[in-house]
Design goal:
Blueprint (H helix, E strand, L loop, with lengths): L15 E6 L7 H13 L4 E7 L6 H6 L2 E6 L2 H10 L4 E4 L6 H6 L7 E5 L13 E3 L11
């Protein structure tokens, strides 16, 4: 069963996008990427950031997002929070660096779930609807 509520009303509100990662915080590349996305699209969407593990979110996350949360290593708190945000899209900035993030990937918290390349291979998790990568991140096969 999916964890996302199916009876949401989305026509009267901005789309809600969440980011979850164990590598958001400080000057981590994943966090800097998330901050750039939020800054670029602020006003078009509502943004929520969830940090899993030991990383502390910088003040900027609290300033630019509509909600910034740290749940530490509490998987139950992470699940409860992600369900309560009623997201339209959940972006995993990575999924294979922390066991809690990996296990969260097997659950559905939003109608659309995306995995951004945080490792050189896809996770194989079926609840990720999209896997984002780029030309410079992929190995080119010789012709």
């Amino acid at each position: 069963p999916h964890l996302a509520r199916k009876d949401r009303i989305t026509k009267q509100r901005m789309k809600r996008i969440g980011f979850v990662s164990s590598l958001i915080g400080g000057n981590e590349p994943h966090g800097l990427l998330v901050l750039d996305v939020i800054r670029s699209l602020k006003g078009l969407f509502q943004f929520y950031v969830v940090s899993i593990g030991s990383k502390t979110l910088t003040t900027e996350f609290h300033t630019v997002s509509d909600g910034a949360y740290e749940v530490g290593y509490d998987s139950r708190a992470a699940r409860t929070l992600l369900m309560s945000l009623e997201l339209d899209c959940l972006v995993f900035a990575e999924a294979m660096n922390e066991a809690i993030v990996y296990s969260l990937g097997y659950q559905r918290f939003a109608p659309v779930q995306v995995l951004v390349m945080g490792s050189p291979v896809t996770s194989g998790i079926p609840t990720f609807d999209y896997f984002l990568s780029g030309d410079l991140l992929e190995h080119v096969r010789p012709s």
